[in-house]
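Technical annex B. To support the medicinal chemistry partners, we prepared a structural model of the target in complex with pyridoxal-5'-phosphate, based solely on the information shown next.
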Amino acid sequence: MDRRSFLKSTSLVASGLALNSFIKQSVANTSTVQLPDAKHPLLLNFNENSLGMSEKAKQAIIAALPNSFRYPDDARAQLVTNIGSLYSLSDKHVSVGNGSSETIQATVAMLVNKARKRGVKIQLVTPDPTFNYAELYSLPLGVQITKVPLKADLSFDLVKMEQIANDFDGLSMIYLCNPNNPTAMITPHSQLDSWMSKVTDDQFFIVDEAYAEFVEDPNFISAIELVKKGQKNLIVTRTFSKIFALAGLRVGYGIAIPEVIAAVDEFLSIDNTNTAGAVAALASLNDKPFITHSLKSNNLSRKIVETALNEIGLEYAPSQANFIFHKVNGDVKTYKQRMADANVMVGREFPPAVGWNRLTLGTPEEMAQFVIVLKQFHQKGWV
Ligand code: PLP
C-alpha cells in the first residue's frame, strides 16, 4: 500500500466508516500491500500503541525541556491531581510510579513488610499464564508463589484461587490482570465482585488494568469502582505505556484508599517521575481525540486479524486489548522463527498455554501486511 492510500485509510479509521472497504482493499488486494523487509520489520511483539504518542504529548515535552533541569515536583503534583480528578478521587488516592511496574514492585514490598511485621507467612496467588512482574518482584523477597492455571476456556479459575487464598495460613497477595496479558480477555466484574468485595486482613488484591483503556465490553467494570466505595485490601494499577504510548517515558500509577497509597509510597523511589513523562502524561489525558482515534484504529486492526484467523480456521481468544492470543496449529517457536525470517516479530508462547501465540495489534496497515504473511504460511501448511 502506498503512502497516499495509507493516509486515506487512516482518515477512514478516524471517520469509523472504513471497515469493510479497508479489509477488501488492503487484505484481499494483496498486490497493493507492501511486505515487511529487513529495514522495515513489523514489530508485533510488544504491546505499546503502534500509532505512537499523541502530538500534544510531544509538544508538551518540547515545551517542558528548558525547565527540566529542575526537579519534577510541580509536574508530578499536577499529574497526581489530574489522575485523581479523572476518577473523582483525591490526590491521596493516587500513587504515581516509574511505570506501573514500580507501583506493583512497591505494593509487593509493602505487603511483604506487613507480613514480616505481623510475623506471618506471605504468598502470591497468580493465574498462569499472566503478566509476571508481581511474581518477579516477589521471588527475591522469599514470597511463596502459587500459580493457578487458566481454565480450558483461558479464563481465570477464580474458585480455585479463592480456595487457595482461604486455605493459606498467612497473608495472600492476589494478582489479577484485567484484561489479562497474554490472552487479552476480560474477567467480567460479575465474576470478580463476590470475592473481591470481601474485605479481610489476610488477602490483598493487586488488580492490574494496564489495558483497561482499550476495553469496550460493558461486562468490564474497573476495580477503581471498589476503591471509590472505600475497599481497603485493594490497589488498582494503570499505565501510560499502553494506549497513551509513553512506555519509554515510564509513567504509571496505582489507585487505592489513602492508607494503602501512603503505605505503598514508602517503598517508591523518591522523585520517581521524570518531567518529560509527567507533562506528556498530562497532555495525553487531555487529548481525547487521540484516544478515540487509537481505539478505532485498534478495533480495525483486530477486525483485520480476526477476519484472517477465521478464514484460515485458527482459534483465538476474544480480545479486549491491543493484542490477540491465537493458536498457530503447530510449534510456536518454529512459527515465531519463520515469522522473524519474514521480518515479522510476533510475540511468544506463554506456557502452560502451549500452542498459542500473543500477537500485538499494530496499525491497520501493519496488520494488512501481517495477514498476507500469515496466509502465505497457511498456503505452505505452516499454520
Ligand atoms: N501490566 C501489564 C499487564 C503489562 O503488560 C505491562 C507491560 O507490558 C505492565 C504492567 C508494565 O507497564 P509499565 O511498567 O510500562 O507501566
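Notes passed to the chemistry partners:
Residues 1-17 have pLDDT under 50 and may be disordered.
The longest helix spans residues 288-312.
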